[in-house]
Here is the input.
Amino acid sequence: MQTVPFVDTQTIITAATGTASFVYNMQGIDRASLQLNSTLTAAATDVVTLSISNDGVNFVGFSTAKTVTFTGGTTDHAIFELGAIDYVFLKVSSAAPSSGSLTLQGVLYGTGGSQVW
Here is the structure.
C-alpha cells in the first residue's frame, strides 16, 4: 500500500511501431496530474490521447480533449492536470508513429485519502 501523495514512474509504452495503450487504475486517487516523456527513434510524429472509463472496457474522451503530438529526434514532455478524479480508469493511447518507434514514460502524481491501492 502506498500513502499519498505518491509518484508512480514507469515505462508505459515500449518501442511501439503501431498503436499502443496503457491503463491506470485511479481508484482511491482524489486529484492527479500525469507527465509523459516520449522518445521517438526517428524524425517522426506521434499523437497521444487520454480517455476515461468506469468499467475498464468502454473508454471516452474528456469533455475537453487531452491530446498531445510528440515529435521525433528529441525527448519531448507533456503534462496533463487531471484535477478531481471522478472515474476509475485512465487510458493513455498512442497512434502509430509516422516512422520509427515510440517509447513513453508516464509519471503519475496523485493525492487522496490516507492510502491508495
Q: What stands out?
A: Residues 6-111 form a domain with the Jelly Rolls fold (CATH 2.60.120.680). The radius of gyration is 14 Å. The chain has one domain: 6-111. Residues 41 and 104 are 12 Å apart (CA to CA).
